[in-house]
Amino acid sequence: MPQIAQLSMVFASQLFWLVISFGLIFFFVGRGMLPKVRSTISARTEKIADDLEKAKAAQADAEKTEAAWRERMDRTKVEATNIAQEAKRESARETEARVKVALDEIDAKVEHARLRIRTAVDAARTELEAVAVEVAQEMVGQLTGLRIDRKDAARALAAELEESRAPAAVGRRRTSVEAR
């Protein structure tokens, strides 16, 4: 077979061109492109490392900023709480002062009313005593026909009232003691 005999010649020629092609590719890729790829990879690696360092530094700064912010927020919350508590205390003091003023006014009105009542009771008692003195004079005059002096009738009425008040006061005391 003649094709097999040519095989060594064709093979040698193909092997020759294969070595030359691979050599050119090796020199072109190995000497021309490979250093560029390696420099690109190392530049990229350096950039990534630099970016990671910057990211770590930025993260540390962010954590410091966050810690400062949290500290500020905590202080602000404490201050706000203090302000709110002081406002409550101030409001309580103001309310207490207003209540005290109102109670003082009410006490003054009550005392004024008690004074008016005492005055009215005293006036009524005086008027009743005067009427009782006149009635006593009239009754003695009609019953006995004697004319009694106003002063004598007033003394007799005062003695009778004094006598009637003493047992009534004792009776009231007994009732209040029994109630206890």
Question: Could you name the key traits of this structure?
Answer:
180 residues, 2 helices, 96% helix, disordered C terminus
Tell me what the structure shows.
The protein has one domain. With 180 residues, it is an all-alpha fold. The chain has helices spanning 2-144, 150-179. The chain is built from 2 helices and no strands. It is rod-shaped. Mean pLDDT is 86; it is low at 173-180.
Write the layout of secondary structure elements.
Layout: H1 2-144, H2 150-179
Summarize the structure.
The protein has one domain (7-148). Helix content is 96%, strand content 0%. It has helices at 2-144, 150-179.
What is the count of distinct domains?
A: 1
Q: Helical percent range?
A: over 70%
- Structural class label: mainly alpha
- Describe the oligomeric state of these chains in a short phrase: single chain
Mean pLDDT across residues = 86
Tell me about the largest β-sheet: none
- The counted number of beta strands is 0
Which word captures the global form? rod-shaped
> End-to-end distance, in Å?
149 Å
| SS field, number of helical segments | 2
